[in-house]
Design goal:
heterotrimer; A mainly alpha (about 475); B mainly alpha (about 210); C alpha/beta (about 325); B: 2 strands; about 65% helix; elongated; C: alpha/beta; five-stranded mixed β-sheet; about 15% strand; globular; binds sodium ion; cell membrane (chain A)
């Protein structure tokens, strides 16, 4: 049997295991291991006396992957970002942010909802995880909105949608994972998420203001804060600014002075939040708790990473990604139409799968195909199908895919953010949240369409970085 | 996408073994968490040293790479105990009673086979980098400061060994549930609905903001 | 038919041309009976290519000695600073002599590997930002991206070797984490460090890295006589192709410097001699002592390099 055929069978087997509920990491690793055994055995003509050899070589090849692939400086960003998120709770950053946003911008129609969106965007600048962001703001923002007479479904929808911003605005664990899989510059990808993240927040805000102006009872403005009160709210939210500034400095040093790599920027950001948490009286037991939670989430993500990379190692031997890329670029259909189909396929897949698992499972095959579609990894903007160079296409596609994955956090049937918001608020059912979040589908649809139509929104910042 | 799940306890031998192993797993996971913390400290040291004292930390990358397997792998059994490795539960969530336990049992048996193989493979990876006759027992070293790599390679088969023990307990747990037709078996993570999970997540965040 | 996999990394570039060429030649000579499939990073991480050979996962691989000195102690002699190798032909000659030494063959055999050929690299000169550094005092406190023996050499004159991976070298330079980067010319081009540079050290020639191509012994032994002959006889041809190709690149180098406005820095003989004395001599002595202590004939290997260099020069 030829390697590509083996590749297809094994990939199909993996999807079956995943759908039937085997833990994603182990299903991928299992597929990779079985695939390696099969491919080595096929190389020896499937002779029975060669099966032992094939088993040994496959197991030793797969056994290298966990150590080999996790020993990476770039991947060390992931635990750091997760730690920042957990420490931020102890530092009380969420409440401080919401308070500041409220005092400064709640005077517009739909004021508290708009404040919530910008506060989640701000928190996104220290948190790498969407679900955690939604959970935190469900507890802080929804009660305040309900107190002044907001529609409760709408209030819940705002929080569920706002939570998705965490994965675009840096730091973002999911963007780091994308960068690793496709071997692109992490710094540029993180930078690229900034404007689309902020852009999404602005689109949400415009939508809210529009809704509040049409239906007066949805969300009245909140005024009456003096300038003194406004400025008084800033110091507590300051660490966020510090972290944002640090990350900007480390990713793209604006004044040409020596700072460091994005990896170091993440760690220094975490350290500042840690100091803040200690200052606010975090105890040792709480630190231990935060470290255990960080470990659990980190291990969960890394197990998928090395599990999938065993499968990817097998794909390397089977050369399936190459074959798929050749097939996609041989299609007569226009590249843009194929790209849109791929994005829609992600929207469907994302309804049923966890974002990180989904990206890790599909990117090894889909990414080379998209690059081939654009004209290859090294193509110049002039010769490309999408009007951008290979590296820029990698960044653009990454942001599109992550935005897609985030979109799926608020779509039925298992949009996790909605479940989390409903879980935090006993007075809200999941159906309530899904109903409230519906307008934001429109906003996200508009955002994604604009990002596809105007790639400059994504690429402007990273192109400045050289 | 199951995140965490509940594990029930009682006074049976299985449950006592479960809690005993949990202690070891917790220590491993804590090592992982502390390593993340050290990573942060190391970066601050490196940046500070370079920026303010013109004395960059030698071999910064080598140290990080050596620390990553501790961070990324040591907690693998703890996460399995807590049901923390993600999966799609859209199909398995529909199953009840013996059908559910049979499906879970099949899944953990497959994982145990996989992890036994990978424990061997990871051990072989360690073994190739280890040579008692060489200085520092090293037959593989890092790129900048020549750190021996075998200690961080050894972490992997160790952590994999612990998850193999955990999987044996889970096979026992699910097998017992299947044979006896139990409703709520001990020592195994129980499937939670998305709503239950969200509730657990929310409780976890209580008092943190 | 025999189907081999060759594990290299990165993208196809001057550094991998001999592997591509040997695959082409072997297939031609055996009428497609013996094929070598070159994989760029799909089969292994570059630092684990020797592991893959040892396991038997693939039959041919390229690696660099400095990536993991403890895996290949004997050939690190070729990465000692200021060996005096001045062109790629000499690099080929000294590598070949060292690869044929029994101590090297024995160490490689522990990995089930047999040396096939080297990937000759020119001297790793620096590109830097800011004012050109022209004296040894200027090197004091310089943050330089240089690995292995080269890093140690710069350390000996007060510079600070700062580790970043080759793919992060550009970013590190841009963000000021390092102010100089040591690479061969093709790497300065492919990693973009030349685009950030203000100057280039044209004649410092502090040393280079050594990156052999090896084959798995079992697979090599399992070849038919005809296939083995096809492989062995293609080595020189593949290397010639490599040298010609790299020569083209070096010819263009000066015009690239001019185009990017990069200043060529020439060091005086005195400065180079002083650098050598401070960096090369102690490094060599330490290396020989360390190798001898482990039962590797360090002195003999070093002498072999020097003799081969002399012979090579005499013959030209
Ligand atoms: Na974020
Ligand atoms: Na609820």
């Amino acid at each position: 049997m030829d390697p590509i055929e083996i590749g297809l069978w094994v990939s199909a087997g993996m999807m079956v295991m995943v759908i039937l509920g085997m833990r994603v990491a182990f299903a991928a690793a299992m597929a990779g291991l079985v695939g390696l055994i099969w491919i080595f055995w096929a190389k020896k003509g499937m002779e029975w006396d060669q099966l032992g050899w094939a088993l040994t070589v496959a197991i030793k090849t797969a056994g290298q992957v966990p150590h080999s692939k996790v020993s990476s400086q770039t991947l060390s960003l992931i635990p750091t970002f997760i730690l920042i998120g957990f420490l931020a709770y102890y530092a009380g950053l969420t409440k401080a942010l919401f308070e500041a946003a409220k005092r400064w911008i709640a005077w517009v129609p739909g004021g508290l909802a708009v404040s919530t969106v910008f506060a989640t965007a701000g928190f996104a600048a220290v948190s790498g995880a969407s679900v955690a962001t939604a959970a935190v703001f469900a507890r802080i923002a929804i009660p305040e909105m309900l107190k002044i007479g907001y529609n409760k479904q709408f209030a819940a929808g705002v929080v569920a949608a706002g939570g998705t911003l965490a994965s675009l605005i840096p730091p973002s664990a999911i963007l780091v994972i994308y960068a690793i899989i496709v071997e692109q510059d992490v710094g540029k990808l993180l930078l690229a998420g900034f404007i689309p993240g902020a852009f999404s927040a602005v689109v949400y805000a415009i939508l809210i203001v529009g809704i509040a102006m049409i239906w007066k009872n949805v969300g009245p403005p909140v005024g009456g804060f003096t300038w003194r009160e406004r400025f008084a709210s800033l110091p507590a939210a300051l660490p966020i600014v510090a972290v944002v500034v640090i990350i900007i400095f480390f990713v793209y040093n604006p004044f040409g002075d020596a700072w460091g790599t994005p990896t170091e920027g993440g760690a220094v950001g975490a350290f500042i939040v840690f100091c803040m948490a200690v200052f606010r009286g975090m105890r040792l037991a709480e630190l231990k708790d935060a470290l255990l939670e960080t470990a659990k989430l980190t291990v969960m993500i890394f197990t998928i990473i090395w599990g999938v990379l065993i499968y990817v190692r097998f794909l390397g031997f089977a050369d399936l990604p190459g074959a798929f890329a050749d097939w996609i670029s041989s299609l007569e259909t226009s590249p843009m139409l194929i790209l849109i189909c791929i994005l829609l396929a992600y929207a469907v897949l994302g309804m049923f799968m966890d974002a990180i698992g989904m990206l890790l499972l599909t990117l090894p095959v889909v990414y080379p195909a998209v690059m081939a579609l654009n004209g290859g990894e090294m193509v110049s903007a002039a010769d490309s199908a999408f009007g951008m160079s290979g590296p820029m296409c990698a960044i653009w596609f990454g942001i599109l895919v992550v935005k897609m994955a985030e979109f799926c956090l608020i779509t039925p049937p298992i949009g996790l953010n909605c479940f989390v918001v409903a879980g935090v608020r006993p007075d809200l059912s999941v159906q309530d949240v899904f109903r409230g979040v519906m307008p934001f589908f429109v906003a996200d649809g508009v955002t994604i369409a604009l990002l596809v139509a105007f790639p400059q929104i994504v690429l402007w910042l990273p192109s400045l970085a050289g | 996408m199951a995140g965490s799940s509940a594990v029930l306890e009682d006074s049976s031998l299985l449950s006592r073994l479960d809690r005993g192993l949990l202690k070891l797993e917790t220590i491993f996971a804590l090592v992982s968490g502390i390593a993340v913390f050290m990573l942060m400290v190391l970066a601050v040291w490196s940046v500070g040293g370079r920026k303010f004292f013109s004395t960059p930390l030698a071999g910064y990358v080598d140290w990080i790479e050596a620390a990553m397997p501790f961070i990324a792998i040591m907690g693998i059994a703890y996460t399995q105990r807590m049901g923390g490795h993600v999966r799609m539960d859209i199909v398995i969530g529909q199953l009840k009673g013996r059908a559910l336990w049979a499906a879970e049992l099949l899944s953990v048996v497959l994982i145990l086979l996989l992890m036994l193989a990978l424990t061997w493979g990871a051990w072989a990876h360690f073994d190739r980098s280890f040579d008692m006759t060489k200085p520092l027992w090293s037959r593989d070293s890092s790129i900048d400061i020549g750190l021996p790599i075998w200690p961080s390679k050894l972490v992997v088969p160790l952590a994999f060994g612990v998850i193999c023990l955990r999987l044996v307990l889970q096979i026992w747990g699910y097998g017992r549930a299947l044979v006896l037709g139990l409703e709520r078996p001990v020592a195994v993570p129980l499937v939670q609905s998305a709503a239950e999970q969200a509730m657990a997540e929310a409780e976890h965040l209580d008092g943190r903001d | 038919a025999t189907d081999w996999n060759a594990s290299v990394w990165g993208k196809r570039r001057a550094f991998t041309e001999h592997v591509e060429k040997i695959a082409e030649l072997v297939s031609e000579k055996t009428d497609g009976e013996f094929t070598i499939n070159v994989s760029y990073g799909g089969l292994s991480k570059n630092r684990e290519n020797l592991d893959g050979i040892s396991i038997g996962a693939f039959e041919m691989a390229q690696f660099c000695a400095g990536y993991h000195p403890d895996k290949n102690r004997a050939i690190t002699v070729l990465e000692l600073p200021f060996l005096g190798v001045s062109n790629l032909e000499e690099e080929v000659a000294v590598s070949k002599a060292v690869y044929d030494h029994p101590a090297v063959a024995e160490e490689m055999a522990q990995w089930n590997a047999k040396m096939l050929m080297t990937s000759p690299m020119p001297q790793y000169n620096l590109v830097g930002t800011g004012d050109p550094r022209t004296t040894l005092e200027d090197f004091d406190g310089m943050r330089v991206r240089a690995t292995g023996g080269l890093g140690k050499a710069f350390e000996a004159v007060g510079a600070v070797p700062t580790s970043v991976t080759s793919s992060e070298a550009y970013n590190a330079m841009e963000s000021g984490v390092v102010d100089t980067v040591a690479f061969a010319q093709h790497a300065h081009l492919s990693f973009g460090t030349i685009n950030k540079a203000d100057w280039w050290t044209a004649n410092l020639n502090p040393g280079t890295v050594n990156c052999p191509v090896v084959v798995n012994i079992d697979a090599y032994d399992a070849l038919s006589d005809e296939e083995r002959e096809a492989l062995d006889s293609s080595v020189d041809e593949a290397l010639d192709h490599y040298l010609a190709n790299y020569g083209e690149l070096l010819k263009k180098w000066d015009s690239i410097l001019e185009e990017k406005g990069v200043e060529k820095v020439e060091f005086s003989d005195d400065v180079i001699a002083e650098f050598k004395e401070k960096a090369a001599d102690p490094a060599r002595e330490a290396w020989i002592k360390e190798m001898e202590a482990q039962g590797i004939p360090g002195q003999e290997l070093y002498d072999l390099v020097m003799e081969t260099l002399e012979k090579e020069r005499a013959s030209n």
